[in-house]
Amino acid sequence: MHNSNIRRVVFSDISKYDGYAQRHLSESEVKQIAGRAGRFNGAYPKGLVSCFQPSHLDFVQNALLAPLEETPVLPSVPALALHSRACNNSNSILTRWFDRY
Question: How confident is the model over 72-88, as pLDDT tens digits?
Fold first, then answer.
């Protein structure tokens, strides 16, 4: 369903239960959900987003207009271990760390 042609996403609520408590959706969650509407080169290249509750519109609009957060992307521990061993440098800090742990 992730690549379905969806023209419109309608938020029925702006909060969710996260396993511990009921909380508002984060900006990134709103963007991820709203991003399901419309697809480049799809049946609906321009998606539409709305809410059942008019009082939720400002919240959703502000979340969609908020700047994107920068998130560092780091290699996984197995990828670092593979790279360290592939370099065949037994004296590197990474190789010694992986051999120890």
Answer: 787 787 877 777 777 77
Q: Which residues pair with 51 in a beta bridge?
A: 11
Q: Measure the CA–CA gap between 54 and 27, rounded to whole angstroms.
A: 18
Greater model confidence, 5 or 32? 32
Is the model more confident about 73 or about 46?
46
CA separation for the pair 94, 101 (Å, rounded): 11
How is the chain split into domains, by residue range?
Answer: 8-65, 71-101
Structural contact between residues 46 and 54, judged by C-beta atoms closer than 8 angstroms:
no
Beta bridge partners of residue 50, listed in sequence order: 10
For the chain, state the CA radius of gyration.
21
Q: Is the pTM above the cut of 0.90? A: no
Structure tokens at 68: 């994107």
* Alpha-helix residue ranges (DSSP H) falling in the chain: 27-34, 57-65, 77-86, 93-100
